[in-house]
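Are you able to produce any protein sequence you like plus the matching C-alpha cells because I've never seen that pairing?
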Amino acid sequence: MFDVIRFTYFFFSKTNASSNLMSEKVSYQPFSSDVYAEHSVSSSSKIEQYSFGDVKIKFEKKEVWRNGVRLDLSDKEFQLLRYFVENRGKVISRGDLLRFVWGYHRLPNTRTVDVHVAWLRQKVDQQVNPQYILTIHGKGYKFSA
C-alpha cells in the first residue's frame, strides 16, 4: 500500500544564481512495524544476568554491581547497557541506539547518545582507554565483553 505526501524543498541553482522552492507529490510505503518486530523478537531471548570484568548485571532486578558495590544507573543508562549486552560484538550506529533505546522514529541531530555513553562508561568502564564500550569512529559503538 502506498500513500502520497507533498514534499517541499528548497534548492539553490548555480546556473541562474537564484533560489527556488519546489513542491512535488511523492509516493511512499508507510513504515511497517515489522522492522521493529524483528528487533523485539531477537531481544526476547532474555538474559537473566551477565558479567564482564568486575561488573555484574542482574537484568530481572535491574541491578548493576561493580567490585561488589551496587551502581546507581538511570533507567536510560540501564536500557543502553542492556542493548549493548544483547548486541555485543556488533557495531551499533547512533541511529540504531536512538531508535531502539530512545524510541525515536526520526533521527534528530543530537549528542544524547554520546553523553549517555560517556555517563555509562564512567560507571561500568574506563573513561580513558575504555575496554568494553568502544567508539568505532564514523560508525557508532561496539560492546566487546
Remarks:
- The beta strands are 3-13, 18-28, 49-52, 55-58, 63-66, 69-70, 91-92, 133-136, 140-143.
- Residues 28-44 have pLDDT under 50 and may be disordered.
- The chain has four helices and nine strands.
